Amino acid sequence: MVRSPPRASIAIAQAVRPGTPAIYGSFFTPLDMRSGSPAFGMPEAVLGTVAGAQIARRYHLPYRGGGGLASADAVDAQAASESMMSLWATYLCASDFVLHAAGWLEGGLTASFEKFALDVELIRMFERMRRGVGFTEEELALGAIRELGPGGMFLESEHTMTHFRDWLYMSPIFTTPDFATWESMGAETLDRRANAEWKKLLESYEDPGLDPAIDEALQEYIAKRKAEPVEEEE
Questions:
Q1: Sorting pLDDT into bands at 50, 70 and 90, what band is 194?
Q2: How many CB atoms lie under 10 A from the CB of residue 234?
Q3: If DSSP codes are grouped into helix, strand and coil, which group holds residue 80?
Q4: What is the DSSP string of 154-214?
Q5: DSSP label at residue 35
Q6: 63-64 and 24-25: which strand pairing?
Q7: Domains of the chain: which residue ranges?
Q8: Exposed (0-12), middle (13-18) or buried (19+): which is 2, by Cβ within 10 Å?
Q9: SS3 of 42, please?
């Protein structure tokens, strides 16, 4: 099911003012027939998002769709799975604009900071995949291969030491120790690491500031609207 008829809205806008910039937006929401609740991250949602993108391309319009959508009520395996399914659809159909990329929980009724940190990490991974594989001589490590040969210790090669920090993705919240090591380190689970991550991001945030003229204009607009009488519906 789609929440609004975007093609009709775009057609009406063009009839009133031809050439008006428009973006095709879809929000496909399968329902859990056991409860009637939205079931984000399900296969039908993925197919709907991709189909919406195909329609947008057919009409030569930018596409708004996808995101880190989830119906789960906690930052758990369900939330991660649903978000991953939703984000796969978002990237596969090359969405031009994403409104709810991170933080969604409980079908959008709740915004979770831990979920936000998790979704941002997933988006970083998708962005890395989107860049693809480089085929320059340096990226293919041809020099290191010639130098070390079959069975060489590439892990400690100069080429690896030079590039691994920039070329190899290392997540700050997804860790890979064996169970015994993880247990000796305090057995910290992903939700706890995500909690620490969003707090660190918040502490390091720097206000980019706002142009004084823009701020003044916004304040004037707010004051003007507040002063306007409220029209009562009949």
A1: very high
A2: 3
A3: helix
A4: GGGSHHHHHHHHHHS---SS-----HHHHHHTT---HHHHHHHHHHHHHHT-------HHH
A5: T
A6: parallel
A7: 6-132+171-226
A8: middle
A9: coil
Report the CATH superfamily, name and number, of domain 6-132+171-226: Trimethylamine methyltransferase-like (3.20.20.480)
Mean pLDDT of 94-103: 92
pTM over 0.85: no
Q: Given a cut of 50, is residue 216 above it in pLDDT?
A: yes
Three-class secondary structure of residue 145 per DSSP: helix
Residue 65 · residue 95 · CB < 8 Å = yes
- DSSP, res 30: -
Residue with tokens 């991660």: 80
Amino acid found at 158: E
Residue 213 tokens read as: 């003229």
Per DSSP, 106 falls in state: G
